[in-house]
Structure to design on (433 residues):
């Protein structure tokens, strides 16, 4: 299942998505109330935050590969979680890159710096890195806004493929992208959830006028 | 006003123009039939190209809007409904021309019966087309639904014409060929009513997002 978060800048989409893996904990002075349940467990209860972030991976707007090789970018997470076997790491790197639909492009460049890749490749590498720790949920905050149409299309194809195995939440300012890839859409305004429903319904017969005004570009 | 809103206004204006052209065509075809005016009938046939051109112009504008604006929600419904409506309007133009061709073929021969229900069918279909276009422009759901219901009036008139003509043929009318021609004229008007009904159903879709059959 892919859920898209849409709404004007400052409406709280990114704040909400970051609260899904407790990234907001890192924001100084951040006040957090309420519960968020993951498989029946409150992630704001007494839990291991690192284990949570392993289960709930995140991909950001700007590709942010580590300044190291392609291989080490992917192996970084598993190593942090204690995997040392070279054989096992090789296996994870290949599977993650394959799942992120970039293995064929990078299999001969595993030792090359990740920073030498194109923007679209870097973003797919970041998705592969998120997949390397075998998460349940994938959060994506405008993952294609800095990419050209071809790279965007590859990421979209990839996201659709990944939804079979992962729960995906994506923040996007691209209405067409939301209609192309998401199953459900949530519209936010000034920090409130205004409308939530099937993407097809939201983009054909939205129930709330504010939602309709926003998606048809008549907002404000 | 945003450029997109200006373009939507332009689309509305063009639809109104095409609607007016089609209404005029039906009226002229009906007048040509009643007055057995072959010159007027020819004018209807010649005017068919104008309706076709208008359809192409509106189609081009709709495709441009889909490409440039990538509309969603009510804008998408409005444009997709317009694309469907113009097909029905173009068909109405064709059928008015078909009626006119029959007028020319009948070549001023005296009518085997006084035309009574066919002119009523013409008036009814003009009203249906006018109302459906008005409903689109004014986003008037009630008016659009009334057009759909009004189709029954046209269908009833067609049945009356058919019944009368069957009686005439049965009684051994001297010009059975004309009886068939008049039946075809009535059928064309009945089809025009169906197209007007389709237009109204697309108007309902553009307003509510619900497709009706």
């Amino acid at each position: 299942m892919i859920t898209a978060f849409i709404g004007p800048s400052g409406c709280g989409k990114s704040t909400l998505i970051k609260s899904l893996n407790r990234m907001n904990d890192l924001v100084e002075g951040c006040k957090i109330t309420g519960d968020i349940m993951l498989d029946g467990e409150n992630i704001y209860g007494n839990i291991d935050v690192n284990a949570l972030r392993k289960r709930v991976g995140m991909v950001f707007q700007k590709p942010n590969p580590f300044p190291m090789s392609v291989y080490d970018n992917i192996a970084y997470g598993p190593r942090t979680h204690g995997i040392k076997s070279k054989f096992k790491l090789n296996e994870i790197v290949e599977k993650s890159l394959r799942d992120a639909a970039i293995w064929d492009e990078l299999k001969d460049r595993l030792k090359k710096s990740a920073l030498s890749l194109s923007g679209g490749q870097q973003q797919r590498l970041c998705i592969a890195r998120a997949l390397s720790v075998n998460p349940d949920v994938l959060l994506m905050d405008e993952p294609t806004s800095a990419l050209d149409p071809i790279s965007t299309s590859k990421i979209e194809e990839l996201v659709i493929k990944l939804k079979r195995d992962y729960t995906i939440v994506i923040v996007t300012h691209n209405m067409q992208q939301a209609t192309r890839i998401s199953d459900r859409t949530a519209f936010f305004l000034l920090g409130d959830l205004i409308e939530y429903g099937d993407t097809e319904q939201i983009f054909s017969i939205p129930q709330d006028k504010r939602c309709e005004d926003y998606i048809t570009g008549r907002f404000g | 006003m945003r450029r997109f809103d200006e373009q939507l206004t332009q689309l509305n204006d063009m639809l109104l123009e095409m609607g007016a052209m089609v209404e005029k065509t039906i009226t002229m075809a009906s007048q040509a039939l009643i007055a057995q005016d072959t010159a007027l009938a020819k004018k209807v046939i010649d005017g068919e190209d104008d309706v076709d051109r208008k359809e192409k112009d509106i189609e081009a504008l709709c495709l441009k809007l889909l490409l440039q604006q990538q509309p969603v929600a009510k804008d998408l419904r409005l444009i997709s409904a317009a694309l469907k409506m113009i097909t029905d309007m173009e068909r109405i133009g064709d059928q008015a021309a078909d009626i006119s061709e029959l007028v020319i073929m009948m070549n001023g021969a005296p009518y085997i019966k006084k035309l009574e229900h066919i002119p009523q069918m013409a008036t009814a279909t003009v009203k249906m087309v006018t109302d459906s276009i008005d409903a689109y422009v004014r986003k008037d759901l009630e008016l659009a639904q009334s057009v759909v219901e009004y189709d029954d009036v046209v269908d009833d008139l067609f049945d009356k014409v058919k019944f009368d003509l069957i009686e005439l043929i049965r009684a051994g009318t001297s010009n059975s060929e004309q009886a068939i021609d008049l039946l075809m004229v009535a059928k064309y008007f009945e089809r025009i009513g169906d197209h007007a009904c389709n237009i109204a159903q697309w108007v309902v879709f553009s307003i509510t997002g619900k497709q009706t059959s």
Notes: The first helix of chain B runs from residue 3 to 35.
